[in-house]
Write a structure and sequence with these properties.
Low-confidence stretches: none
CATH superfamily of the largest domain: Thiamin diphosphate (ThDP)-binding fold, Pyr/PP domains
Radius of gyration: 24 Å
Largest sheet: 6 strands, parallel
Number of helices: 22
Structural class: alpha/beta
Shape: globular
CATH architecture of the largest domain: 3-Layer(aba) Sandwich
CATH topology of the largest domain: Rossmann fold
CATH class of the largest domain: Alpha Beta
Mean pLDDT: 97
Oligomer: single chain
Strand order of the largest sheet: 3-2-4-5-7-6
Distance between the termini: 66 Å
Length: 553
């Protein structure tokens, strides 16, 4: 059966089990959009291409399935770049399809031409420019394979207009074989044995857990390891939800805005077991004072991460789930009473806290969201103070319940990502905890939510500041608030203008009723929480400082 390139794209996506696409049409993808018109695929028309990339990202993080976004050539493609980079930094499986000018116009500065494969080379796991329609099905098969295997990541496929028009026989490959691409999935048994011996000998072990545990689906194996060895567990921002934060062994998040108990434990442990984490600067702080007394076991599917930032005593490359299964089989109950007592002392002495003075505090709002949803919502965040309070004060008990831009720290991520998460998990309550600065970067996607009746809730912690920048200016720049005062719109009127529900809250007594009302509305809602303006996120490790030397909290 002969099909056009556009029809091959649609058929190939169906073969891959794709159900949702987030995109924005334009001249060079009109053939693809015409093919979509006759297909069963659900397309969501966003209001900006960056929104398409973030929505595909949120869909992928919430479901574990690859997200798909589609944009035209030139500015359509370049508008995807921030979203692609966000997915790349956080290892999110995504396939981005872009239109391109016809092959005979490539390299001639043609109208709406951009070298999107060149532009995205550093921020994709791989990318393609398809110049022959006969290569299209094979390329799509390879793209999904690369995006979802090993360490996941975004893959871009650039399709010239003439390739989408030309026809060829369609046969979708059953398998793909890429020379030179063979991710290591099984860990070295000898190294796993050495790690097991180290754990048995340790007196003060700590499990340091990253997003790799969530990606691998290894939460059950991690839970078994923690209980078997009675090792306290601390997570990165991306690792939140991998281990239940209501468990006695949970230390919460570590690093710049981590808990004091987590940072002290890492600083005094004798064995640090890093599982699916990459030792980024927001976690380690001053490198030569990070876990100074510890031997380090590092488990990760990406060999490039091992030894990149810190010395490692036992490197184990492979899929986290496979390795933890093997490791658990080699371990017996391990008890260190003194260490457990010390951890309990730190947790009791240094809980997360804030001043309760009758004013509307952002931390209180997050706590109330947790109470109303009983900890069962999917929380998405923007970036800034709102992100850190959401990480600190909501207790996450399952993977994929916390969705946030970690590595790139992308403001404007939350709303479109929440839309994608809700599309992927329609039965979940999805709440975007936002700041009044970050939400305005992609506020236009509220129109997308309204158009498709996607009932996401946006909880704006509105302090009329670019809050995290202002906090740094307060602490490190003697309160010289240089361009951080950000007087916003009337968010209630703005919500109503888009056709959503708008609620304003000024009093702590109004918080819980407002959240309940938003959930019961079953439509897009913005809640404008007018919070205390100069509230800070604590604890805080000064940039470049040692993580056991924290401010506040």
């Amino acid at each position: 059966m002969n099909l056009s390139g556009a029809q091959i794209i649609v058929k190939s996506l169906q073969e891959e089990g794709v159900e949702a696409i987030f995109g924005y049409p334009g001249g060079q993808v009109l053939e693809i959009y015409d093919a979509l018109y006759h297909s069963s695929l659900k397309h969501y028309l966003v209001r900006h291409e960056q929104g398409a990339a973030h929505a595909a990202d949120g869909y992928a993080r919430a479901t574990g399935k690859p997200g798909v976004c589609l944009a035209t050539s030139g500015p359509g493609a370049t508008n995807l770049v921030t979203g692609i980079a966000t997915a790349y930094m956080d290892s999110v499986p995504m396939v981005a399809l872009t239109g391109q000018v016809p092959c005979n116009l490539l390299g001639k500065d043609s109208f709406q031409e951009a070298d999107i494969t060149g532009i995205t080379l550093p921020i994709t796991k791989h990318n393609y420019l398809v110049k022959d329609v006969k290569d299209l099905a094979k390329t799509i098969k390879e793209a999904f394979h690369i995006a979802t295997t090993g360490r996941p990541g975004p893959v871009l496929i650039d399709v010239p207009k003439d390739v989408s028009v030309k026809k060829t026989k369609f046969k979708y490959p059953d398998t793909t074989c890429l020379k030179g691409y063979k991710p290591t999935l099984e860990g070295n048994k000898g190294q796993i044995g050495v790690a097991a011996k180290m754990i048995a000998e340790s007196k003060r072990p700590v499990l340091y857990v990253g997003g790799g545990v969530v990606i691998s689906g290894a939460s059950g194996e991690l839970f078994k390891l923690a209980e078997l060895t009675l090792s306290p567990v601390t997570t990165t921002l991306m690792g939140i939800g991998a281990f239940p934060e209501t468990h006695p062994l949970s230390l919460g998040m570590l690093g710049m805005h981590g808990t004091k108990a987590a940072n002290y434990a890492v600083s005094e442990c004798d064995l640090l077991i890093a599982v699916g984490a990459r030792f980024d600067d927001r976690v380690t702080g001053k490198l030569d004072e990070f876990a100074p007394s510890a031997r380090i076991v590092h488990i990760d599917v990406d060999p490039a991460e091992i030894g990149k930032n810190v010395r490692v005593d036992v490197p184990i490359v492979g899929d986290v789930k496979n390795i933890l299964v093997e490791l658990n089989s080699k371990l017996e109950q391990h008890l260190s009473t003194n260490w457990q007592d010390k951890i309990s002392e730190w947790k009791a002495k240094h809980p997360l806290k804030y001043e309760k003075n009758g004013k509307l505090k952002p931390q209180f709002i997050v706590e109330q969201i947790y109470d109303v949803t009983k900890g069962k919502a999917t929380i998405v965040t923007e970036v800034g103070q709102n992100q850190m309070w959401a990480a600190q004060y909501y207790k996450y008990t399952k993977p994929r319940s916390f969705i946030s831009s970690g590595g790139l720290g992308t403001m404007g991520y939350g709303l479109p990502a929440a839309i994608g998460a809700k599309v992927g998990c329609p039965d979940s309550i999805v709440i975007d905890i936002a700041g009044d600065g970050s939400i305005q970067m992609n506020i236009q996607e509220l129109a997308t939510a309204v158009h498709y009746n996607i009932p996401v809730i946006v909880a704006i912690l509105n302090n009329n500041f670019l809050g995290m920048v202002r906090q740094w200016q307060e602490i490190f720049y003697d309160r010289r608030y240089s361009y951080t005062d950000i007087t916003g719109p009337d968010f209630v009127k703005l919500a109503e203008a888009y056709g959503a529900m708008g609620i304003r809250v000024n009093d702590p007594k109004e918080v819980k009723p407002a959240i309940k009302k938003a959930i019961e509305a079953k439509r897009p809602v913005i809640i404008d929480f007018v919070v205390e303006r100069e509230e800070n996120v604590f604890p805080m490790v000064p940039p470049g400082g040692a993580i056991h030397k924290m401010l506040g909290g």
